[in-house]
Structure formats: C-alpha cells, structure tokens
Specification:
Blueprint (H helix, E strand, L loop, with lengths): L14 E7 L7 H11 L4 E7 H4 L6 H10 L4 E4 L13 E2 L1 H6 L4 E5 L2 E5 L1 H13 L7 E5 L3 H12 L4 E5 L3 H14 L4 E5 L4 H6 L3 E4 L23 E4 L8 H8 L4 E2 L2 H16 L5 H14 L1
Parallel strand pairs: 1-2, 1-3, 4-6, 7-8, 7-10, 8-9, 10-11, 11-12
Antiparallel strand pairs: 3-5, 5-6
Helix pairs in contact: 1-11, 5-6, 5-10, 10-11
The structure holds nicotinamide-adenine-dinucleotide (NAD) and (1S,3R,4S,5R)-1,3,4,5-tetrahydroxycyclohexanecarboxylic acid.
Pfam families: Shikimate_dh_N
Pathway: Metabolic intermediate biosynthesis; chorismate biosynthesis; chorismate from D-erythrose 4-phosphate and phosphoenolpyruvate: step 4/7
InterPro entries: Aminoacid_DH-like_N_sf (IPR046346), L-lactate/malate_DH (IPR001557), NAD(P)-bd_dom_sf (IPR036291), Shikimate_DH-bd_N (IPR013708), Shikimate_DH_fam (IPR022893)
Length: about 300
C-alpha cells in the first residue's frame, strides 16, 4: 500500500470490524485496531465475537461471516479454532491464504468476502525487523498447527533453505512438511519427531516455537533447555506473556531471542491496512501494544 488512502479508506468514512474465535476476551487485537484508527483521526469499532461465550460451534463461523457482511462490517479477523473452517464461506482467497489453507483476515468488498492470511506476513516482518542479520539457512519449527504453518511459510519466503517441522502429532508435522515441499521445491523441508529435536537443533541456526506451551494458562517449557546453545536464535509466537519461560531460558543461555509480540503487532498492522485501506504506522501499533500490556 502507498501513503495515499484508497477509496475504502476515503475521508470521513468510519469502520466496523470484528474478531471471530473462541476464548478471545483478552485479545489485544481489537484495541490495537481502534487506537490506530483514532490516531489517524478515524472512527473504527472493533468487536469480539466469541463463539464460546455465544455457545456456538466452530463451524458456525460461516454463518457469522455471512451475517457480518449483511450487517455492514468492513472486515474481520478470524482466530482459533476457525481459521480453516471459514474457507467454504469465502468468495475468494489471497494466494498466500490459499497456499496455507488458513485465513485470519476477511475483507468485505466488491469481490464479496475475500480471505487473507497476515499471520505469515506478520511473522516475516517481525523477523526482518528484529533479527535482520541472524543466519537463517537452517531452522527448526516446533509445532505444526496454524501458527507453525504460517511461520514455516514465512521462513521459506524469507530464504530459509532447510526446515525441520517437529510436532507431537506426527501426522501434522508430516502433512505440513509435504505441503511445504510442494510449494517450495527448492528447499529441504522435513518432519521430525520430538525425540529427534536435539539432533535437529544441533545443526540449526534458529528455532521457532509455535505450540501453546508457555501461555499464561498453559505454562511450562516445550523442550529441554539444555538443547539451547548461544549460537541458536530462538523465537516464540506465544505473546501472552510476551516473555515466556522458553525465552527467559534462551536469554539466560546467551541466545538471541524474538518474542511473539512483533508477530501480533505486524499481523494486526497488515490486517488493519486490508480492512480499512488506510496505512497504519507499525511503530505506533508497537506503542499501542506496549501500552495495552502495561495496563494489565
Ligand atoms: N503472536 C501471534 O500473532 C500469534 C498468531 C497466531 C497464534 N499465536 C499463538 O501460537 C500458539 C499456537 O497456536 P496455533 O493456532 O498454531 O495452535 P494449534 O492448536 O493449531 O497448533 C498447535 C500445535 O502444537 C502441537 N504441540 C503441542 N504441544 C507440543 C509439544 N510440546 N511439542 C511439539 N508439538 C506440540 C500440537 O500437536 C499442534 O499441532 C498459541 O499460543 C497462539 O496464541 C500467536
Ligand atoms: O490477537 C489475537 O487475539 C489474534 O487472535 C491472534 C492471531 O490468531 C491472529 O491471527 C488474529 O488476527 C488475532
């Protein structure tokens, strides 16, 4: 997007957006969007549509997307457990959302409801922003769910040549490695079992953790910290808390680290641009994020 506002973001227009998912009451994405719109002198109302609180099944996301379009929403974010389930309700997909088979942003416009994925671009931007000079030839991704798939895609787009995906669920890791191999035939993408994590990490430049371990309601470490050596950079996608037990252990062992806050901010930044047609200021979104965290 350029500095010029598109028609979607034409002066005077206000915006209506929402987040559909389960257990999203504490999400910082709604206030990030609202604050950034206010900073730009615009009105944006962003609502959480929590299927758990509404007593709805995850598959009802299709019904909710259709209702949001009829009610005049400009766009939506979609989160766990609906990122894949939403696909049949959409009229089109960006190339990346199609490749990932997952959508976290829906834009309503002349082409109907179009799905995008800003999780992958959010992680790619965060990595570029915070670890621009880190070696990225060989990387291990721990967790082959929605976040792991987005991160793996971002890493391969960013030039990673060897990627190992590890998950307790072998079929998830194998499936993701196979899809990535098809999409990035020039790269070496493999799956690995958790008991082979030490071997995979021994030859790696970096590790990205993409399981829910370390979240406030799911504390702990996803691996034996003795596997972390100073030359390995360690990224976590978990951002509640921002400083996870894994990142604390990694820093203590001399590793460079990247927390999940950058991914959270940049996915919101990219979604905000798509939904409103306005150009967000990434540094301002970072500031909103820091202020919101400090309030807690
Ligand atoms: N920072 C961000 O912007 C951002 C964006 C999306 C998701 N997330 C976070 O990413 C995390 C994962 O979310 P998700 O949607 O991918 O979840 P998911 O349930 O889709 O996938 C999690 C995967 O991790 C695997 N797993 C669980 N424990 C494991 C372990 N100890 N070792 C190996 N594999 C293990 C599971 O089998 C599953 O495949 C959550 O904490 C979520 O909040 C952050
Ligand atoms: O911040 C959150 O709560 C999110 O749910 C995180 C991640 O799932 C994003 O893809 C969503 O857009 C927002």
């Amino acid at each position: 997007m350029t500095g010029t506002e598109t028609r979607r973001g034409a002066a005077g227009r206000s915006f209506l957006a929402g987040l559909i998912g389960a257990g999203i009451g504490q999400s910082l994405t709604p206030p990030m969007h609202e604050r950034e719109a206010a900073r730009l002198g615009r009105r944006l109302v962003y609502r959480t549509i929590d299927i758990a609180r509404l007593g709805m099944e995850p598959r009802s996301v299709g019904y909710l997307v259709e209702a949001a379009a009829r009610l005049g929403f400009d766009g939506l974010n979609i989160t766990h457990p609906c990122k894949r389930l939403v696909l049949p309700a959409l009229d089109g997909l960006s190339a990346e959302a199609e490749a990932l088979g997952a959508v976290n942003t829906v834009v309503f416009g002349a082409d109907g409801a179009v799905g995008h994925n800003t999780d992958w671009s959010g992680f790619a931007r965060s990595l570029r922003h915070e670890l621009p000079d880190a070696p990225k030839d060989r990387v291990v991704v721990l967790g082959a769910g929605g976040a792991g798939a987005a991160v793996a895609y971002a890493l391969l787009v960013s030039g990673v040549r060897e990627l190992v995906v590890v998950d307790v669920d072998a079929s998830s890791a194998e499936g993701l490695a196979a899809r990535l191999t098809e999409r990035f035939p020039g790269a070496d993408c493999r799956s690995g079992a958790p008991d082979g994590l030490g071997r995979a990490l021994a030859g790696a430049d970096g590790l990205v953790h993409a399981t829910p371990t370390g979240m406030a309601h799911h504390p702990g470490l996803p691996l034996d910290p003795a596997l972390l050596r100073p030359s390995l950079w360690v990224a976590d996608v978990v951002y509640r808390p921002v400083r996870t037990e894994l990142l604390r252990e990694a820093s203590a062992r001399g590793c460079r680290t990247l927390n999940g806050g950058g991914m959270a901010v940049f996915q919101a930044s990219d979604a905000f641009g798509l939904i409103t047609g306005l150009e967000p200021g990434a540094e301002h979104l970072h500031a909103h994020f820091r202020e919101l965290l400090a309030r807690e």
